[in-house]
Amino acid sequence: MQESMGMRLARHGVIVLLLGLVTGFVIGKFHDRGLGNAAHLTGLIGGFGMIALGLLWPKLQLGRFGSRAGAWMTAVSMYLNWLGLAILGGLGSGPKAAQGAVSGSMLLWDRAGGLMLAVAALASLLAALVILFGLRKLGAPAVTAHAIDAAVTAK
Q1: 3-state DSSP: the chain helix, strand, coil percent, rounded to 5?
Q2: pLDDT at 140 > cutoff 60
Q3: Burial classification of residue 55, based on how many CB atoms lie within 10 Å of its CB (0-12 exposed, 13-18 middle, 19 or more buried)
Q4: CB 90 within 8 A of CB 29
């Protein structure tokens, strides 16, 4: 189960990486190029990070539920990070935003992008905690009185 979740996470990492690459080609169309750059870099870094996590995933000490929950929280947080930044840079208000060019209010797009980023931050925090929990050591050798006596007499 862990191996298949790792492969799924790596696949989603490649998709986020591709989204970041495509965003790099259209940064010039964003009215806020700083946010376009942020979306581009978030896609690249997040994609490579998820690919690396996918390779690490089978080694984590997580149960079935923890593995699924952690993998999906990680993937969803990366998609929402990229999408929130892309929406803010492309559709929200900004220094060079054209009034009325996009359907709906720019304030609506600002709120939608901000909400996505807030949910992504929370999901990223929870995913990091799950991964940290999965990196714990299980079954560490117990120190017995006999081992302590042997160490003391050896000195």
Answers
A1: 75, 0, 25
A2: no
A3: middle
A4: yes
Kindly state the DSSP code that residue 104 receives in the 8-state scheme: S
Count of CB atoms situated within 10 Å of the CB of 16: 25
Each residue's pLDDT tens digit, 78-93: 999 999 999 888 887 7
Residues 6+ apart with CB under 8 A from 14: 47, 51
For residue 130, the tally of other CB atoms under 10 A from its CB is 19
Structure-block tokens of residue 95: 């220094």
Helix (H) / strand (E) containing 38: helix 33-56
Helix axes 106-134, 64-90, angle to 10 degrees: 150
